[in-house]
Amino acid sequence: MAPERHFETEAIRLQAERSAHREHSVPIFATSSFVFDDAEQARALFAGEAEGHVYSRYANPNTDEFVRKLCALEGVEDGVATASGMAAMFLSLAAFLNQGDHVVASRSLFGSTHQILTRLLPRWGISCTLVDLSAPRAAWERAMRGNTRMLFVETPSNPGLELADLDWLGSLAVAYSAILNVDNCFATPYLQNPAEFGADLVTHSATKLIDGQGRVLGGAVLGAADLIEEVRFMARHTGPAMSPFHGWILSKSLETLAVRVDRHCANALAVAEFLEGQPGVTRVRYPFLPSHPQHELARRQMRQGGSMVTFELAGGYAAAFAFLDALTMISRSSNLGDTRSIATHPASTTHSKLTEEERAAVGITPGLVRLSIGLEHIDDLRADLDRGLAAARAA
Ligand SMILES: *Cc1c(COP(=O)(O)O)cnc(C)c1O
């Protein structure tokens, strides 16, 4: 289902129906429920025989607009908006997994997704095998079992920026009749469309680059209509609904996604190139740097390299702390995908709940720093990074 219009146009022109007030910008439908013209309409809506809104836990014009846009941008049929990215991740798992089922997932996962797979789902008899994201196909095949119902990956991964080859993961999912679920938060639909490669479900945290300004939480589960029907059933009755206000904000955010992500990527590539030559920096990771071990795959599967850059400081933990503390502009925060650039020390914050071995297995060393590159002027970014690097070398 390729969009009929270009990405930028769909992101702007796909709008909720105009009301009797003839507004140009879509208003916020701050209403929990909707009224029926007559008893027959109410009956038909409840029976699913008519289209329309009933109650904002099910759907709302603002959250609908947001989801319809995301579907067009990802090239999928249908979707459900959720209150946060984690609500989307959890729904996308819980809607399909039954007692006794097995999941194969990439080892490098967003922290809370890792907790769901390894600590919560086992309580309901659902097991999971973790595989290195960049491992060869044979390693993924070895992890597959007769009861494997889902493959779950994030690509590029957080914070290692490793890639999964979506093309062969898609064919693996088909061969084992498993659902391929791709968390596309880091790439955004502007840079990568997993459904093109055979992903059955595309999941998002809209909190990151989709909002892009660090304001609200949101998420979405997207995919083929029959799969989304299952997700919608679970969402309706368990209540992780996105608020109309957040739907309104996030739909507006999609209008500027393409121009913002273009600048994020240009800045991030310039930062990665700058860091690569610096003394005291032992390794820089960015998908569109020729030194990235999966550079060729990145070029095949992504349109640009994204907004995240990670690098390793020779001085380990002390150097990483000195680097962070010397920054005067780049924010010390654990969020990402904001207009403001952000520096994070994953080992002591976002990934501190992992055991030392779990961290080592996904390359989170004491000297690793993660940068979410924002929209500031590149010269100001370089100047602040210089301050951090000088402090790291002196530590
Ligand atoms: C942030 C994030 C999530 C969780 O999203 P929230 O909106 O914070 O709940 C899931 N996956 C990835 C890759 C993320 O970066």
Q: Can you summarize this structure?
A:
The chain has 15 helices and twelve strands. The chain is an alpha/beta fold. The chain has two domains: 241 residues, Aspartate Aminotransferase, domain 2 (3-Layer(aba) Sandwich); 138 residues, Alpha-Beta Complex (Aspartate Aminotransferase, domain 1).
Distinctive features:
395 residues; alpha/beta; Aspartate Aminotransferase, domain 2; Aspartate Aminotransferase, domain 1; 2 domains; globular; binds pyridoxal-5'-phosphate
Mean pLDDT: 96
The distinct bound ligands, ions and cofactors come out as:
pyridoxal-5'-phosphate
CATH class of the largest domain: Alpha Beta
Which blocks of ≥5 consecutive residues have pLDDT under 50? none
Q: How many strands, what sense, and barrel or not for the largest sheet?
A: 7 strands, mixed
Strand/helix succession = HHHEHEHEHEHEHEEHHHEHEHEEHEH
Q: In DSSP terms, counting alpha (H) and pi (I) runs of 4 or more, how many helices?
A: 15
- The assigned structural class equals alpha/beta
What is the CATH architecture descriptor of the largest domain? Answer: 3-Layer(aba) Sandwich
Beta-strand content bin: 5-15%
How would you sum up this structure, described in words?
By secondary structure, the chain is α/β, with parallel strands linked by helices. The chain has helices spanning 7-13, 39-46, 61-74, 85-94, 111-120, 137-143, 166-175, 188-191, 225-238, 244-255, 257-276, 295-301, 316-326, 356-361, 378-394; strands at residues 78-82, 102-106, 127-131, 148-154, 179-183, 201-205, 219-223, 281-285, 308-313, 331-332, 342-344, 368-372. It folds into two domains: 14-254, Aspartate Aminotransferase, domain 2 (3-Layer(aba) Sandwich), CATH 3.40.640; 257-394, Aspartate Aminotransferase, domain 1. Helix 3 (61-74) packs parallel to helix 10 (244-255), helix 11 runs parallel beside helix 15 (378-394) and helix 13 packs across helix 15 (378-394). The relative contact order is 0.12. The site of pyridoxal-5'-phosphate (PLP) has 16 residues, from helix 4.
